[in-house]
């Protein structure tokens, strides 16, 4: 059987333990900034709750569809009114032309 050099085994064990301890300390220092504190977690929970509350009051697809239909109805009404106003403008222009001719005729006959 081979003789085991216990002093060499002890030296290697000490070196491995030291390197492992340094690695664990380094890992702990790196991970300590990654975890959320209770205060930050509470703030995050409050924000999520507020977002959920806001989303519960947001319009649904059905609400948006209803508003869209109302807007289309208003657009149609506006288009009809625009046509009516254009027609009235044309009629007023004709009436104005007729009144001017009558005025001109009256003025010429009174001379």
Keywords:
111 residues, mainly alpha, 3 helices
Describe the structure.
- The chain is mainly alpha-helical and 111 residues long.
- Helices cover 86% and strands 0% of the residues.
- The protein is built from three helices and no strands.
- It has helices at residues 6-32, 38-56, 61-109.
- The radius of gyration is 45 Å and the shape is rod-shaped.
Task: Give the secondary structure arrangement, pairings included.
Layout: H1 6-32, H2 38-56, H3 61-109
Low-confidence stretches: none
The helicity comes to over 70%
Biggest sheet character = none
Class by alpha and beta content: mainly alpha
Shape label: rod-shaped
Order of helices and strands: HHH
Number of helices: 3
Taking Cα atoms only, what radius of gyration do you get, to the nearest Å? 45 Å
Mean pLDDT: 86
Distance between the termini: 150 Å
| Count of beta strands | 0
Question: Beta fraction of the residues?
Answer: under 5%
